[in-house]
């Protein structure tokens, strides 16, 4: 490994450690909100260890907290987790792993580990960034999830503290910064309208799935490439005979930057007759 490679690896490790600490702190919120939503300590820890996808975990406990069925909660979490499949397809040829390392890498493939890994320039730094970020977040997240779950369990009845709607609010807080474009904002607004409209008529959890389906359809339509628009260039009168690419005949007095011209007419053809 060259000195430059070692420098890039150390930089990737520093970045991974900072990301792991910043992201892992959310584990406290998840642990507390999971218990508030109705899961016990063991269920919370098993969910965090096996699922290990922050957005999907918050979505799952959000559906559970709203009274949704386990099937609706699992489906919602699964739909959000599909993005990790795309990350895996991107990272697989870069990491080039086999055997149990490949299985472990699949479990650690999340937003943050993918972002840190793909930001590196060398293969060694990419691998260091992926492993340090994935393992770092896994350890910090689950340790702080345990702390949060113990704290939430000590609170007792969540309704006495007004925390029965906290899971949904926490997921909204995670989603809000991602609504950067007008299309995302309109998609989210329409999904909310669909979910609220279905609340009186369908079992709990179904409105969330319906809203997700609406968002997926709108997202696919918005991504379709637009047909190219042909623009007819306006050509002023008298300029039709001027060649555009330097080819063909030139009219007297036309400009060609490759040919020297007379004084006062830079680039124009000379009117003088060549001496034999």
Q: With helices defined by DSSP (H or I, 4 residues minimum), what is the helix count?
A: 12
Number of domains: 2
Computed over alpha carbons, the radius of gyration is: 30 Å
- Termini separation comes to 69 Å
- Secondary-structure-derived class: mainly alpha
Form type: globular
The portion of residues forming beta strands comes to under 5%
What's the total count of β strands? 0
Order of helices and strands: HHHHHHHHHHHH
Low-confidence stretches: 246-255, 257-276
Main location: membrane
Membrane topology: Multi-pass membrane protein
Organism: Oerskovia enterophila
Family: Belongs to the AzlC family.
Tell me the layout of helices and strands.
Elements: H1 3-24, H2 26-37, H3 41-51, H4 54-65, H5 70-81, H6 83-95, H7 100-107, H8 111-118, H9 123-155, H10 166-175, H11 182-198, H12 206-223
Helix pairs in contact: 1-8, 1-9, 2-4, 2-9, 3-9, 4-5, 4-10, 5-12, 6-8, 8-9, 11-12
Structure description:
The chain is an all-alpha fold and 276 residues long. The protein contains 12 helices and no strands. It folds into 2 domains: 160 residues, no CATH class; 47 residues. The C terminus is likely disordered.
Q: Main traits of this protein?
A:
transmembrane; disordered C terminus; 12 helices; 2 domains; mainly alpha; 276 residues
Outline of the structure:
The protein is mainly α and 276 residues long. It contains 12 helices and no strands.
């Amino acid at each position: 490994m060259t000195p430059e490679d070692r420098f890039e690896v150390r930089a990737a490790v520093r970045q991974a450690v900072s990301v792991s600490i910043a992201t892992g702190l959310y584990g406290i919120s998840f642990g507390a909100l999971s218990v508030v939503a109705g899961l016990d300590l063991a269920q919370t820890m098993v969910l965090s260890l096996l699922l290990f996808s922050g957005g999907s975990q918050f979505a799952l406990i959000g559906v559970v907290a709203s009274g949704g069925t386990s099937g609706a909660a699992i489906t919602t979490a699964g739909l959000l987790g599909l993005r990790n499949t795309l990350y895996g397809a991107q990272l697989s040829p870069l990491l080039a792993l086999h055997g149990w390392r490949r299985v472990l890498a699949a479990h650690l493939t999340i937003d943050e580990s993918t972002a840190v890994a793909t930001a590196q320039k060398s293969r060694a730094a990419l691998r260091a960034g992926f492993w340090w970020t994935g393992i770092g977040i896994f350890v910090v997240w689950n340790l702080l999830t345990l702390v949060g779950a113990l704290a939430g369990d000590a609170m007792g009845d969540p309704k006495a503290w007004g925390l029965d709607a906290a899971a949904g609010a926490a997921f909204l807080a995670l989603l809000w910064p991602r609504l950067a474009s007008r299309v995302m904002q309109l998609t989210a607004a329409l999904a909310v309208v669909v979910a609220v409209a279905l609340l009186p008529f369908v079992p709990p959890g179904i409105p969330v799935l319906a809203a997700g389906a609406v968002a997926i359809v709108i997202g696919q339509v918005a991504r379709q490439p637009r047909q190219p628009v042909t623009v007819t260039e306006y050509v002023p009168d008298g300029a039709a005979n001027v060649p555009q690419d330097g080819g063909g005949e030139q009219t007297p007095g036309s400009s060609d930057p490759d040919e020297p011209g007379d004084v006062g007419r830079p680039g124009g053809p000379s009117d003088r007759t060549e001496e034999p």
